[in-house]
Q: What sequence folds into this?
């Protein structure tokens, strides 16, 4: 079973700053990595798939990078609506298993 | 507009059963693999199960294997999750989600509470 580990658990930042969230896989998942944003009381929203491709309607300030076992989500200039919990997820093939990381909470400093 | 609407959640006693449904609209349901993902109160997301677009292939998280069964009815644009032998640790909001690359569309979830 592939284990996804996110860091940090909580990140305190101010609007306008650059935020960097990390996700590590216990074994290679190639580029099969997605990032989601979740706000309280809402369903998750897909931000990034294929490690670096923004989903439809996602602002350009969100970017993803990495491959294999190390991945990063960067928010270039934090807006008030970006403070939320972020999850990475691997979608390995053969057989398909979709494992989430434990989440990183981005809070206002 | 893509819509996924879950139903069937509620309060059930340990060892009991429940059947969740997810009604899909706004897209060709039979063309997409579908998933169930759950979230315990105050906790993170946990992938539960997935089913291929034909319904012939399905996969489960180890934590639910043998107790939860995913199925679909493409004629009725519906996804199901049959939940048997429920435990307290199954208490969660259950989301259905459509797969494309990643899970792009999600329902709003239905709450299942397992408690005596």
A:
């Amino acid at each position: 079973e592939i284990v996804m580990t996110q860091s940090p658990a909580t990140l305190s930042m101010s609007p306008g700053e650059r935020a960097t969230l990390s996700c590590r896989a216990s074994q290679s998942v190639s580029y099969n990595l997605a990032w989601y944003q979740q706000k309280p009381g809402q369903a998750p929203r897909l931000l990034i798939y294929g490690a670096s491709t923004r989903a439809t309607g996602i602002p350009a300030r969100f970017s993803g990078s990495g491959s294999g076992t190390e991945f990063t989500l960067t928010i270039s200039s934090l807006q008030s609506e970006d403070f939320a919990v972020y999850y990475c997820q691997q979608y390995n093939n053969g057989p398909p298993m979709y494992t989430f990381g434990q989440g990183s909470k981005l809070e206002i400093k | 507009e893509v819509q996924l609407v879950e139903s069937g959640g509620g309060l059930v006693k340990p060892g009991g059963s429940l059947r969740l449904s997810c009604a899909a609209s706004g897209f060709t349901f039979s063309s997409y693999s579908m998933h169930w993902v759950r979230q315990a109160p105050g906790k993170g997301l946990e992938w539960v199960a997935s089913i291929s677009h034909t319904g012939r292939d399905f996969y489960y998280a180890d934590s639910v294997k043998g107790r939860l069964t995913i199925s679909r009815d493409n004629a009725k644009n519906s996804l199901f999750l049959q939940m048997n032998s429920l435990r307290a640790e199954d208490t969660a909001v259950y989301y259905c989600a459509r797969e494309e690359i990643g899970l792009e569309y999600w329902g709003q979830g239905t709450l299942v509470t397992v408690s005596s």
Q: What stands out?
A: DSSP finds no helices and eleven strands in chain A. The mean pLDDT of chain A is 94. The radius of gyration of chain A is 13 Å. Chain A touches chain B through 28 residues (CB under 8 Å).
